[in-house]
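Look over this today:
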Amino acid sequence: MPFQEVLREAEQFYSQIDQEVIFRLSPIAGDEPRRILLNNGYLGFDPCHVMIKVASAHEDFPHVVIVEGLDDGWLAGFTAASKMTLKQSEAHRKIVTNIRGRVACATVYQNEQAVGFGMAVMEGQFTGIFDVVVDSSHRRQGHGREVTQALCSWASQTCAKFVYLQVQAENDAARALYHGLKFSESYSYSYFSRLKNMT
């Protein structure tokens, strides 16, 4: 189907449920979708890199607790650490409660306080790591690394062969962290929406 028709049908569908259309374009989409979106008033935002590595076990992480399945306590902690609005947290909950695949929620503790969070989703040979966040008052103490490594170990122990994650292109600190954990950049993508024209 030509992308112009995809755009028309997407806009019709999402207008019926009062939602803004957001496209995610990877290099495989080619140049035409990007050109059409720009010509129709869309703007690109949040360029991201997808990074990947071979799954491997690490040492034990005594400060990290991993719970399989979606955990309400984890959701509450993640929402607080991310400083989400009520609307954002409700949207996030809808997304994660509809995840298909084997889910693990990781929480890192410091002095019995939950300070960092991350989620892994396993599908076949691949495990994706998502929603890695550390409370703003506890950053730059290695908690993000600890959560990521613990989830990589979980992936290895559950027979995944590869682990991947995504990181915003401008987040140099996170990219450096993941490079240090032997992740390499696989491909990049950007989002497109008319919402960014309204700011």
